[in-house]
User: What shape does this take?
Amino acid sequence: MDGYAVSSDLTHQEYCAFRDFLEQACGIVLGENKQYLINSRLRFLLGELGIKSVGELLVMVDRPSSAQLRQRIIDAMTTHETLWFRDQYPFEALKRMILPGLVRSNIATLRIWSAACASGQEPYSISMICEEYRREYPSRALGTVQILATDISPTILQMAREGVYDNIALTRGLTQDRRERFFTEENDKARIKPEVMRQVIFRELNLMQSFKSLGKFHVIFCRNVMIYFSDQLKADILNRIADVLELNGYLFLGGSESITRYCDRFEVSRAHGGMVFRLKS
Ligand SMILES: C[S@@+](CC[C@H](N)C(=O)[O-])C[C@H]1O[C@@H](n2cnc3c(N)ncnc32)[C@H](O)[C@@H]1O
Assistant: This one.
């Protein structure tokens, strides 16, 4: 689509209409003057559709049976940036503090939710931690581990399910030791081993939808996604997360995200260099 002329002159009305569409569809709030972002993220899609403006795109998205188009716009506008063992501390806290506590409580099936999992690095890192715990403490029986990994984007979920990563993705946060232990090399890529994969189930879920069908979790990772949402939606999601956490269950947010202004159902503590949020009894 090189050279395709997309109009960069979004009218104020088109800008507001697109902003409303995006917030209603996936919760992402665009601040003022983000015209450049819309243009750069949608340029390829507009070119592919043979249309020249976001206004035309909004007319198309209003038509019945536009579900796929809506999905493609959300895909284009969302950020899927992620890496292995992101920020380290949640994974250290899981291995050194949370898993030992759950083993002591004789939990038969440990349920963990990675609530905006992008291309899978977060849930697979959790799964590797559980495998490492099993190897390091063979006498302590860690029961069955079920990791539910969800995201709004079916495209990114498909990549996550395949579990194959290129060298650039593999260098981000992964030690050579873990690469050797948990991946099988395939040319210049590497594939997650079945023992890591089999503990993870991927499913499409928009965080604006109900969580009731998910069941309860001992630990929830909801990291680096709520930063894009309004304060009202953050409060709503945090309350619904609290509803699906087991008593005294743990929540991890992104390193720059907090809870205090939005929800008082958690106790905050420091662990392994970061914040952990624990559901109050
Ligand atoms: C920046 S990535 C974070 C990935 C991972 N949690 C981490 O911290 O590395 C944000 C992810 O949130 C997803 N996302 C955005 N809005 C969402 C929504 N309303 N519901 C579910 N997932 C959403 C995006 O598709 C993207 O994959």
Notes: The first helix runs from residue 12 to 26. The first strand starts at residue 109 and ends at 114. The radius of gyration is 20 Å.
